[in-house]
Write a structure and sequence with these properties.
The structure is a homodimer of 429-residue chains. By secondary structure, chain A is of the alpha+beta class. Chain A contains nine helices and 26 strands. Chains A, B: Its EC number is 3.7.1.2.
């Protein structure tokens, strides 16, 4: 089945900005609360949010095998379970409904009023209930930076790194959508000058520039997913800010990995951009430096050319770019990650989320965390307001944006934006 | 509200074995498929499974604030969300319904036929949908054994271990109930004699004797749970076999912790024994060896005296005890684990599962894994059929049992039993 929704010549009858992340060729999926306080599944074209639940009730998806309530849900999990063929039929149909040549909805004011929302009328929610969340560590530049800082610049990569798409399990319950603020975490740290650990607010709160993919039901317990079939089970992608507390991490993480340093929050962009929409931006991953075991060898291009940028906005100030990176820098791609994750038979379900790990490039202005940008605080960043940052300060807002661009053709993710609040103060009882 | 269900003098009108794990003082909660292929929430007394959905429809829970369908669900998550007061009301009522002095249900044959099942008429399911699963590492004896084997016997414990209830995130999707077999996982390992890693079946499949607790909705993002309130949010406990692949673990786990070595399967006993039922077996934890930070200091006894035993049954052979341990050996208790887990504001929800880590005692016959029992394979265990085991072999069944005993009073967990199958063979397409 062809992806007619990707037709670059298609125009929409909706009025949309010329430089939007969400042209009619994008058609992402999300969940939002409407002006009537109803939760629905929707898509976005330009600055319009479109209620797919209402469209379906009005019969616009006739002929596509969908249950009546598939879009009247508070997560996309069931729709994602319907599988790739259905996602494609729905996305193609949405492109058709909003095509400049199609007047059916355009000329029906009543239907339009029920289906279309402006962005200020809605509130984006978590798009999926995340069953399990895995974080990979797939940027060679990031792993090398970390290894150089904390171990040995001459042997920065650990022996397994070039053989395994290293990953670990994270916490689903603290994944939140863009816009939800995050409290500075407290925890145990062990200052170098102290014999015993101390308790208090983290002094080294950081972002990590990542992207994550969302899966459908992929396999049963025991059953591996071959690397060249992995993409069939990937629904789409979001921007992912993996908030981190570096001082807590340092004291806790040996031998079982990061825990409280990571699980206080991870923020995502709320619109899931489908793999179909990203298809025109497919590109090659870096060439493997070691011979890979067969289960990690793949055919064709499995990465995507996605421009990424991180901004910091101090309270009351203007936002300022900290770093520019690209998803294609990643050494390990999503197909390898999913093949590795399941090679032991681990089951992957609809709504599972797998993040890339920090996406750093090779130049200093492309690093994906404050830890790397300030080299563990030794080179503070000067902001336009004259202040300096080693790490993130209270009331700073961190914004990540991402988009693919090819000539005039642009497919974007919007943004993930979140503010760091001071330490949580318990309410008096 | 008193826990009248714990009255040790109470007898039931049901005929039950004298030495059962499930006297009328237990009243655990589980989910099962009935002879009519209906999924329901139930409890167990002796060798009877009791359909709580049917009991509720028949009006036996009148006066307790419960939604009509609370027990007609395929998980306990919503019931657990109802909170401790409701759990206690329901458990006290069940004790009353089956009390030898109460003839209402006893004398109603129609009702009895709708409510009571024998164990061979039902099939136990996962009792909860696990939102997030965390595995702790709370046995000092286990951590010391591992450190002695793989690092340095004189500095076996890492510097953070006596300060932090060390834990890490695990995989929810591969937690399965007793009775479901597990395939031997495949993966990358790095033999000492080889320069490059190799791929193949794990040669060191192991069990880990653990217990896990299940939580209710405990906090919001940002909000810590104080250590002395933690027990209010714990619904109950199960036996937990954390299947492990030691050779895969060794190659993958630095620096982000175990991943594929653990996430192929964890098996649990299907009946959740409530904290109320365990109350008479409350006991002290080992005395802390280091001054604890205030958020980990608690009042009173927070551990439980639960006898644990692991058995191995070779294909066609008889089962044989490998190890006897006790939950009370754990250095860190559940209240400390939950307080630590949330001190940074990490949200904990209904159905989350937190396992203890391997529970080893101080003597060699109380170690909780083959890795420790055979000291990394150097001291194989001799089985009654003459064969030896360094680790678990294909078609071996591992069984864990646990119970509290005080004179004639016994509260047990039943068992978690699972067979290791050979490597998964993909079906021909």
């Amino acid at each position: 089945m062809s992806i007619t929704a990707n037709d670059p010549s298609r125009k929409t009858w909706l009025e949309i900005p010329g430089d939007t992340d969400f042209p009619i060729q994008n058609i992402p999926f999300g969940v939002f609360l409407t002006r009537d306080d109803v939760i629905t599944i929707g898509t976005r074209i330009g600055d319009y949010a479109i209620d797919l639940g209402a469209l379906h009730q009005l019969g616009y998806f006739e002929g596509i095998p969908l249950t009546d309530d598939i879009f009247l849900q508070d997560t996309l999990n069931d729709f994602i379970s319907d599988g790739k063929k259905t996602w494609r039929l729905v996305r193609n149909r949405i492109a058709d409904i909003f095509d400049a040549k199609n007047t059916k909805l355009k000329d029906n004011e009543d239907h339009r009023n029920r289906v279309l929302f402006t962005l200020d009328e809605i509130e984006m929610q978590m798009p999926v209930q995340v069953g399990d969340y895995t974080d990979f560590y797939s940027s060679k530049e990031h792993a090398t930076n970390i290894g150089s800082m904390f171990r040995d610049p001459d042997n920065a990569l650990l022996p397994n790194w070039l053989h395994i798409p290293v990953g670990y399990h994270g916490r689903s319950s603290s994944i939140i959508p863009s816009g939800i603020p995050v409290h500075r975490p407290q925890g145990q740290t062990k200052p170098a000058e102290s014999d015993a650990p101390v308790f208090g607010p983290s002094q080294r709160v950081d972002f990590e520039l990542e992207m994550a993919f969302i899966t459908t039901d992929a396999n049963h317990l025991g059953e591996p997913i071959p690397v060249d079939e992995a993409e069939d089970y990937i629904f789409g992608m979001v921007l992912f800010n993996d908030w981190s507390a570096r001082d807590i991490q340092k004291w806790e993480y040996v031998p079982l990995g990061p825990f409280l340093a990571k699980n206080f929050a991870s923020s995502i962009s709320p619109w899931i951009v489908t793999m179909d929409a990203l298809e025109p931006f497919r590109t090659a991953s870096p060439k493997p430096e070691k011979e890979l075991l067969p289960y990690l060898q793949y055919k064709g291009d499995k990465s995507f050319d996605i421009n990424l940028e991180v901004f910091l906005q101090p309270e009351g100030g203007e936002e300022q770019s900290l770093s520019k990176s690209n998803f294609k820098y990643l050494y390990w791609n999503m197909s390898q990650q999913l093949a590795h994750h399941t090679v032991n038979g681990c089951p992957v379900n609809s709504g599972d989320m797998m993040a890339s790990g920090t996406i750093s490039g090779s130049s200093e202005d492309s690093f994906g965390s404050m830890l790397e940008l300030t080299w563990s605080g030794s080179k503070p960043i000067k902001l336009k307001d004259g202040s300096e940052r080693k790490f993130i300060e209270d009331n700073d807002t961190v914004i990540m944006r991402g988009f693919c661009q090819n000539g005039n053709s642009r497919i974007g993710f919007g943004e993930v934006r979140s503010k760091l609040l001071p330490v949580y103060q318990p309410k008096k009882k």
